[in-house]
Amino acid sequence: MADNIGNPMLRMPSTAKKGELVEIRSLIMHPMLTGLTKDKSGKLIPAHFIQTVTATFNGKPLLDIDWSTAVSANPFLAFKMRAEDNGTLKVVWKDNQNGDWSAESKLTVS
Predict the structure, then answer these.
(1) How much is the pTM?
(2) Residue 70 and residue 34: Cα distance in Å, rounded?
(3) CATH code linked to domain 2-109
(4) Where is the Sulphur oxidation protein SoxZ domain (predicted)?
């Protein structure tokens, strides 16, 4: 199962006009297990889910999300930000088993 975890994807325009709203879309491959399901032998499968998602632009916080077992497998997240300056968007996902993934994308504002 470890091969199916991670591979964060981040999609956003690379350029925008000053003041324009830019949509950011992200997807990460993760099983998001609740800890309530059983394997074929009837044993509970331990919970394994993304706990936090943070997004920063040029190191300044944009959002900080706390997730739980209620989020579906391979979660998709979309949000918007206003393009004011050139910079780098960074999104970080952390799970309850010390997994840590990140993705970055650059934005040029004209």
Answers:
(1) 0.92
(2) 8
(3) 2.60.40.10
(4) 13-105
